[in-house]
Specification:
17% of the residues lie in helices and 36% in strands. It has 526 residues and is an alpha/beta fold. This is VWA domain-containing protein.
Length: 526
């Protein structure tokens, strides 16, 4: 028997306009017939490892959930098997059935203009209608998308061992492949990402009478595989496949204090001197995706305990809704933990860091991070915190036959095409390396510092300095303060032709003395 678990009644449009939304502290509870208020354009995350997830987009202002046992016969679904977590602008739904029973199947009705993040290991994921943005990950099950044929969307659908099939009108990018499809429906807009491992990805047309109105917005990432090597070549053709341009901008007073309370009308975005219409505005409270990229080569190998402690301190400064991934590198980059807000898992991964061997392939590590970890989160508030001296082994005292395959010019191009803010923490190891290799190493360090400074400037970040590993904690505190001053703006360029040209961006804020720092521009794909 289907058991109706909950209906979350949201404000009507008139009520929202009159009352507004007050962010709450995070609340986690079992289902108990609770009603909760969510602001418009919220994110609904559903994690149901042992069952199916079916989501329908409906023109109504409430979220409605039903749950059934995944395989009959079995006991009725109990309240404690469905965990609900409320965060500002986000609702998390997680199932946790006992090991002695089969899993739970969820059917969820969500309002239009809702971001969806869905995950199942053994079940099928099905979405009917066009959400504001979608990221769906299935391991052994299929992903079924029933989309309005007139939808405007940018799609990235892949299956490792299964097949990808589209029965909806779209324009494909690249070479046709029955295991990967990148393309555009209509004018492009809502970003829809589906990743299957063993199952298929199938997109069919939704009958017109069941179509939901579309709104092009942002998307969330698929989880990466834990402890996989991060390859600089993986997905190295990073380009903007949608015309949506998202800017992360630090807005402060002249003395560096964050300016709070900005509204959409306070911001002007110019592309090549032409004002743009801002269609997305993310406040200081919008969650961040952070990648912590740790250089474990050279002299840092002997100070892993200090590096762990400082990283744990940085983790403690993040808000509950912020997600973090951990990548370490020496001559090989490894993803220790994909993007998650599971603090326990992140702490465990940091505790598991071991002394590495090999050289320093910094360019490959950062390129791999942008291509692998951040590829599917383009359009969100993304940042990479790099703890490194920047001394790739291609720099003196090394040379062309050492270090990364990725060149600095290639890395620079990737930084321009990726929308993540780069925040390097320069870890000064110069004295020790010069003592070992001689004065020629000083040239390498001068080049490395200039490169880190340029990468930060290109993306709207800035360079921080740590004279010793023990100074990392203070640097992390400064980075956390920097992130609390970041707004996000999104727009569709008025000059929409895909010409492969670099578009220069300038952001103005209508506040006296406001200082704005954001990425310098982007490359429009051909």
């Amino acid at each position: 028997m289907v058991g109706v678990l909950a209906a979350w009644m949201l404000w009507s449009a008139e009520s929202r306009a009159q009352q507004g939304f007050e962010p709450r502290m995070p609340v986690k509870r079992y289902f108990d017939d609770t009603r909760t208020l969510l602001p418009p354009k919220s994110t609904v995350r559903i994690r149901n490892p042992r069952g199916n997830i079916s989501v329908r987009i409906v023109p109504r202002p409430d979220v409605f959930i039903t749950a059934t046992r995944h395989a009959a016969p079995g006991p009725p679904v109990r309240a404690e098997e469905v965990i609900i977590e409320e965060l500002p602008q986000q609702l998390n739904i997680t199932t946790d059935p006992p090991d002695t029973t089969t899993g739970v199947d969820l059917e969820v009705l969500v309002p239009e203009q809702t971001y969806l993040r869905l995950m199942s290991e053994i079940g099928t994921l099905r979405v009917e209608g066009l959400p504001a943005g979608l990221i769906a990950t299935a391991y052994y099950g299929n992903i079924e998308l029933c989309l309005p044929p007139e939808a405007d969307a940018d799609v990235t659908w892949t299956s490792v061992h299964g097949r990808v099939r589209a029965e909806v009108p779209l324009r494909q990018f690249g070479t046709p492949d029955d295991r990967a499809l990148h393309g555009q429906m209509g004018r492009g807009g809502a970003i829809l990402v589906a990743q299957a491992d063993r199952g298929d990805v199938v997109a069919t047309a939704l009958p017109p009478e069941n179509s939901a109105r579309e709104r092009p917005v942002l998307h969330r990432p698929a989880t990466a595989t834990v402890e996989e090597p991060v390859s600089a070549a993986e997905g190295s053709d990073v380009v903007l496949e949608t015309t949506l341009v998202v800017l992360n901008a630090v807005v402060t007073t002249p003395n560096g204090a964050p300016i709070r309370g900005l509204q959409l009308e306070d911001v002007v975005v110019l592309e090549d001197g032409e004002p743009q219409d801002i269609t997305y505005f993310g406040t200081l409270e919008t969650p961040f995706n952070l990648v912590l990229l740790l250089d474990l080569s050279g002299s840092t190998r002997e100070k892993l305990a200090v590096i762990r402690r400082a990283a744990l301190g940085f983790l403690a400064t993040l808000r509950p809704e912020d997600r973090m991934a951990i990548v370490t590198f020496s001559d090989t980059a490894r993803l220790l933990c994909p993007l998650t807000n599971d603090r326990r898992k992140l702490r465990e991964r940091l505790d598991e860091i071991r002394r590495p061997e090999g050289g320093t392939n910094f360019y490959d590590a950062l390129a791999g991070t942008m291509n692998s970890v951040l590829r599917e989160v383009r359009g969100e508030r993304n940042a990479v915190v790099l703890v490194t001296d920047g001394m790739d082994n291609v720099l003196p005292p090394g040379g062309p036959d050492y270090g990364s395959v990725t060149t600095y010019e290639e890395l620079r191009r990737l930084a321009q095409e990726c929308d993540a803010m780069l925040l390097p923490i320069y870890l000064d190891t110069e004295a020790e390396v010069v003592e070992r290799y001689g004065a020629r190493a000083r040239l390498g360090y001068a080049i490395a510092r200039n490169q880190l400074r340029e990468l930060a400037a290109l993306t709207g970040g800035r360079l921080f300095y740590a004279k010793t590993v023990e100074d990392l904690e203070d640097c992390y505190a400064a980075v956390a303060a920097e992130l609390r001053a970041v707004y996000s703006f999104g727009y569709y360029p008025k000059q929409a032709q895909r010409d492969g040209r670099f578009r220069r961006i300038h952001v103005k804020v209508r506040r006296e003395g406001a200082v704005v720092r954001t990425r310098q521009g982007y490359v429009m794909p051909k």
